[in-house]
């Protein structure tokens, strides 16, 4: 089913809902529904706003006004401390520890790692999902059931064998070593995409086979374009997940050249005095680290919404 067809079905469902008196809502129910939605939005977005507010506050002054909704003594000092633009003396005067992290290198490492994992994982998972959904081969369902079983295994159980494997390969303290265990495919990604490949019209596949198209051509020219919004959605979800990963990069990347931004922020937090933590600097680092995620959501937001809508009327 094409994206345009799914969009028409969504509009048709909305139109029929609006015309049905039984489904029409009273003004009171609409008001409370919108009020509940507004409350949920505020609760969801408030931590992000509080992060921004703290990132532009003076670290010492904000403890005197803990309930202020606006930045306390607005300053760019926290961002300068995280980026290493402030001298140790200036950082201490602003309530920091005087220590700094290689923020630019950590951000670059995170971008490279998350991109490597996302690109390779989506490519291999899409091919596997296509094979599980549209190809007929002996033992297909049994193999897929094994993937479902793997989906139920807690990630913590795979850390030790993966660590031993990376160590034996000599890839500790490298970007490849951090990315390798997740680069090829995951049960979740295969399961997610398989559901949408089931929606591809088999008559199109059969017509392509009759015309002499190879399976690779059918996959890349027909199947993938039909589920492209869902692939983008999955790619964004996986990028965010591995961007936020902390434990595995902490174990594998222990040198300065291999640390990711999540580990770097943890180091920055540990460098501040226990009795007077640099919350403003930490929130500034978290804000800067979240910029790539915000950018991706702004760029691909419409495709994500379209993917969710189409999955709801399959």
Bin the helical content. Answer: over 70%
Order of helices and strands: HHHHHHHHHHHHHHH
Looking at this structure, what is the CATH superfamily of the largest domain? MetI-like
Under CATH, the topology of the largest domain can be stated as MetI-like fold
Q: Which band does the percent of strand residues land in?
A: under 5%
Shape: globular
Number of domains: 2
| CATH architecture descriptor of the largest domain | Orthogonal Bundle
Number of strands: 0
Indicate the low-confidence ranges by residue numbers: none
Number of helices: 15
Q: End-to-end span in angstroms? A: 9 Å
Summing up helix and strand content along with how strands pair, one would put the structural category as mainly alpha
Mean pLDDT: 85
Please state the CA-atom Rg, rounded to the nearest Å.
25 Å
Main sheet properties? none
CATH class of the largest domain: Mainly Alpha
Strand and helix layout:
Layout: H1 3-19, H2 27-55, H3 77-83, H4 88-93, H5 103-134, H6 140-151, H7 156-168, H8 175-183, H9 187-197, H10 202-210, H11 215-226, H12 228-243, H13 247-252, H14 261-271, H15 279-312
Helix pairs in contact: 2-15, 3-15, 5-8, 5-9, 5-12, 5-14, 6-9, 9-12, 10-11, 12-15, 14-15
How would you characterize this protein structure?
- With 314 residues, this protein is mainly alpha-helical.
- 71% of the residues lie in helices and 0% in strands.
- The protein has 2 domains: 3-93, no CATH class; 103-271, Orthogonal Bundle (MetI-like fold), CATH 1.10.3720.10.
- α3 (77-83) crosses α15 (279-312), α6 crosses α9 and α9 packs antiparallel against α12 (228-243).
- The longest helix has 34 residues, at 279-312.
- The chain is globular.
- The protein starts with a helix and ends with a helix.
